[in-house]
Amino acid sequence: MIALVALLCATVPPPLAIVGGRVLPVSGPPIEVGTVLIRGEQIEAVGPNVVIPPGAELIQAEGRWVTPGLIECHTQLGVHEISALTETVDASASTGDAIHAALRMEEGINPRSALIPVARRHGVTSAVVTPIGGLISGRSAWLDLGEPQRTGDLYFGPVAMNASLGEVGASMAGASRALAVMRLAEVLDDARLYKKRGAAFEQNGLRKLAASRLDLEALQDVLERRIPLVLEARRASDIIGALRFAQREQLRPILYGADEAWLVAEELAKAGAFVAVNPESNLPGRMEQLGARPDNASILARAGVKLILTTESTHNASSLRFYLGNAVRAGLSHAAALEAATSAPAAAFGQKDRYGTLEKGRVANVVVWTGDPFEPRTFAEVVLIRGQRQPLETRQTKLRQKYQTRLGL
Question: Where in the sequence is the domain holding 276, given as residue range(s)?
Answer without folding.
Answer: 70-356+395-407
